[in-house]
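Thread: Newbie trying to understand structure tokens

Hi all, I'm a second-year student working on a class project, and my supervisor (Dr. K.) asked me to get a predicted structure for one chain before our next meeting. I've only ever worked with sequences, so writing a 3D structure as a token string is new to me. If someone could post the tokens and maybe explain what I'm looking at, I'd be very grateful. Here's the chain:
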Amino acid sequence: MRCELCGRETTCVRHHVFFGTANRKLSEKYGMVAMLCPDCHTNSGRAVHRNRLYDLKLKQSYQAEFEKRYPDEDFIKVFGRNYR
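---
Reply by user tm_fold:
Sure, no problem. This is what the structure looks like when written as tokens:
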């Protein structure tokens, strides 16, 4: 599988882009789940669980994707926040 952040072909894990109890379920429902290699997920300095900038960039790109896929849904009402 290919990591969505670095593009490396390796074993990847599912990352709920919008996390927390309620948002994790909403991420599943709306397909806001990124496949990330262990380095981009948790193991390196650029990992989304360690680096707020990378986490924000991922959230911004998935917010844009949500708005394309679900034009009749209000992202802020669903996820409670605007990441742009």
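A couple of things are worth pointing out once you decode it. The radius of gyration is 13 Å. The mean pLDDT is 94. Feel free to ask follow-ups in this thread.
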